[in-house]
Specification:
There is one protein chain. The chain is α/β, with parallel strands linked by helices. The protein has a domain at 75-266 and 275-296: Type I PLP-dependent aspartate aminotransferase-like (Major domain) (Aspartate Aminotransferase, domain 2), CATH 3.40.640. Helix content is 36%, strand content 19%. It has 13 helices and 17 strands. The protein has helices spanning 5-13, 46-49, 58-68, 81-93, 107-122, 139-143, 148-151, 169-175, 199-212, 281-296, 299-315, 341-349, 372-385; strands at 25-29, 32-35, 40-43, 100-104, 126-130, 161-164, 180-186, 188-189, 195-196, 215-219, 243-246, 257-261, 322-328, 331-336, 352-353, 355-356, 361-364. A hairpin with a 4-residue loop joins strand 2 and strand 3 (40-43). The longest helix is centred in the C-terminal third of the chain and has 17 residues, at 299-315. The protein is globular, with a radius of gyration of 21 Å.
């Protein structure tokens, strides 16, 4: 790799936690990004599923610019116009029954809050999560994340967590008991390999929770805001979660998270949780603009259509390297019979950026504004490297 002063600078002062590709990305528009040396890429990383409305979305830029000129921070001890409107919008677009909202800054924070709310509301400790599930890297969210490589260096984590196989209702039925505060699941497991949940399984888990006094927490951090072809992946299966965790695509790239809260939670005690920056007017303005753009441009429907094109195209690639193609909307995984790393590097050389999901899966999370023509270009280049 040729030396680059910006890469050298970041290498010198960065924590070293993140493995990086040797690219300095400096500009984006729609579903494309450009490096410092002018290389153009179709972006199927999408900020790990954040850039749903596309890079440099003009509607989001205008909202942020105008709000920054008025008021950037308003503590939650005061009311705010943008926050009030966003709370109402989130409830409007959510699955039925979710009628209150806690605003925070990230997906991990949303999961942390949901765990606290579940334990506080039920008086129980036990949280059941799924094998291969991923919910974040802060200590509470990490306690619900299955991968031992993430967990073991930081143990002991929070007590009371148990893991059962995904899509196995019989095993879930054995696990939920009178000490279970909540079950925490993704509708589509992302980091675990892009594994869609079966509708009967998810509804069955929900029914077991209601029957046994546990709460049903759905992690829609990656699947929310049009990613899977509906505004929320829960809507594919008519789910009515008690708590729903949101982030990533919520504010068009601006950092934000939220927990949507159902009636089984009860009244949360004042000061039982908090966030200095949660619900700040700048993030709320960005989120309002993002929701408006998703709806007016019909991006969830477009994600369903273009995602079907991507799935069909990947399945039509005849290669002995491919084990399976699976996904929902524009959340797609291509599982190989060997590690995906070399193929991700080869794709980048051909102008397509994608990411892994585990060791062997190439994951595609492009902005929902990606065109059919861009999808066809991605398919052609994937076929070349396979």
């Amino acid at each position: 790799m040729m030396s680059n002063p910006l890469i050298d600078l970041e290498e010198r002062y960065d924590s070293g936690i993140y493995p990086k590709q040797p690219l300095v990305l400096v500009r984006g528009e729609g579903a494309r990004v450009w490096s410092l040396d002018g290389q153009e890429f179709i972006d199927c990383v999408g900020g790990h599923g954040v850039a749903n409305v596309g890079h440099a979305n003009p509607v989001v830029i205008q909202a942020i610019t105008e709000q920054a000129g008025r008021l950037m921070l308003c503590p939650n001890g005061f009311y705010n116009d943008q926050r009030a409107r966003l709370l109402a919008e989130l409830v409007r677009i959510a699955p039925p029954g979710l009628e209150r909202v806690f605003l925070c800054n990230s997906g991990s924070e949303a999961v942390e809050a949901a765990i606290k709310f579940a334990r506080l509301s039920t008086g129980r400790i036990k949280i059941i999560a799924a094998m291969r599930g991923f919910h974040g890297r802060t200590c509470g969210a990490l306690s619900a994340t299955w991968n031992k490589a993430y967990r073991e260096p930081f143990e002991p984590l929070l007590p009371g967590f148990e893991f059962v196989p995904y899509n196995r209702l019989d095993r879930m039925a054995q696990a939920i008991d009178d000490q279970t505060a909540a079950v925490l699941l993704e509708v589509v497991q992302g980091e675990g390999g892009v594994i869609p949940g079966d509708g009967d399984y998810l509804r069955g888990v929900q029914a077991l929770c209601q029957e046994r006094g546990a709460l049903f927490i759905v992690d829609e951090v990656q699947t929310g805001f049009g990613r899977t072809g509906r505004m929320f992946a829960s809507q594919h299966h008519n789910l009515q979660p008690d708590l729903m965790c949101l982030s990533k695509g919520i504010a068009g790239g601006f950092p934000m998270g939220a927990v949507l809260i159902g009636p089984r939670i009860g009244k949360l005690p004042v000061k039982s949780h908090g966030s200095t920056f949660g619900g700040n007017p700048l993030a709320c303005a960005a989120a309002l603009a993002t929701i408006h753009y998703l709806e007016t441009e019909n991006l969830p429907e477009k994600a369903a259509q273009v995602g079907a094109r991507l799935l069909t195209g990947l399945r039509s690639i005849h290669s002995p390297l491919v084990r399976e193609v699976r996904g929902l909307g524009l959340m797609v995984g291509l599982e190989l019979k060997m590690p995906a790393g070399p193929y991700l590097a080869a794709l980048a050389e051909r102008g397509v950026l994608a990411l892994s999901a585990g060791t062997n899966v190439i994951r595609f999370l492009p902005p929902l504004v990606i065109t059919a023509e861009e999808i066809d270009m991605v398919l052609q280049r994937v076929a070349e490297v396979l």
